[in-house]
Amino acid sequence: MTNSFDTSAQSNTIDLPDGRFHYLSWGAEQTELPAALLLHGITSSAQSWVRVGPALANRFRVYALDMRGHGDSIKPARGAYSLRQTADDALSFIGILGLERPLLIGHSWGGATAMVLASGVGSQKPAPTFSHVILEDPAHNFGRGDLKDRAALYTRDIGRPAHELRAEITADNPGWTEADIEGKIDALHKVTREAVNSVFVEAGEEGELLPLLTKISAPALLIRAGASLGTTLDEAAWEQAKRYLSRHSRAVQINGATHNIHRSKFDAFMQVVNDFLNPMAN
Is pTM, for the whole model, over 0.85? Predict the structure, then answer.
């Protein structure tokens, strides 16, 4: 059961230290509720969360940030895409909006950013306090393999005609809704190749991120896509990650889900998230 508030996304802008950023919010007027911050993956945008935002908005004030180089946020030149820089964007966002102990959810590149943010690595400031941290198929090692070849897989669709993208995304992603598809097309028309290439180079300098799991004090939920469906966590990484998690944390694989778990298997994703956030309800 949901409350009677408007669950449609509200479009907003905010000035952070490095420039103007865009974000979507759901239920932000519910000042009595705790906050949730959602960080999307590479070549996506805040619109990645068009189903997750409303699903959380009966319990949280939900904020989804367009990360730098993506969506309607600033498009800095190369040299400004390290994971510490994207984590600092989120840190500033939390501070300016006064979000206290928010829930943090990060997918893929957003998951990598969330790991750096929640661990406090590389920062002169203490790590912020989160109520819970949810890492959805995080990109834990951008520096692995041939960076040029890996980046090319993500840049090839940037700016392609909408009708071509719509047909291909629909055919390849049967679990996605029309809103998911249109959001991805919009994101692919706004992201720049320079931003994507810079993320791979500069985020890759951080190396393997899984050890950072030991530095995350909040209860963490690590979610993996199907083992043969494009997960970022192969078997070795999955076993390693589970050893790093604290006893208050969980690791869950969602069978049949592709890397975009929250879009390909939305109901299963939300069930896992809800079970984690509401353990006494089980």
Answer: yes
How would you label 92-130 residue by residue, b for 16+ Cβ within 10 Å and e otherwise? bbbeebebeebbbbbbbbbbbbbbbbbbbbeeeeebbeb
Q: Is 222 helix (H, G, I), strand (E, B) or coil?
A: strand
Which residue(s) pair with 107 in the sheet? 136
- How far, in Å, are 58, 131, 201, 220 from residue 35 at the CA level? 11, 9, 32, 16
What pLDDT, on a 0 to 100 scale, did the predictor assign at position 144?
75
Please give the structure tokens belonging to residue 196: 């994507």
Q: Give the DSSP per-residue string, 261-276.
A: HHHHSHHHHHHHHHHH
At a CB cut-off of 8 Å and minimum separation 6, what does 6 contact?
A: none
Instruction: Give residues with Cβ within 8 angstroms of 272, minimum separation 6.
Output: 221, 223, 252, 254
Amino acid present at 65: L
**Helix (H, G, I), strand (E, B), or coil: what is residue 132?**
strand
Q: Give the chain's mean pLDDT.
A: 94
Starting at the edge strand that comes first in sequence, how are the strands of the sheet with 61-65 ordered? 10-16, 19-26, 61-65, 35-39, 103-107, 132-136, 220-224, 250-253
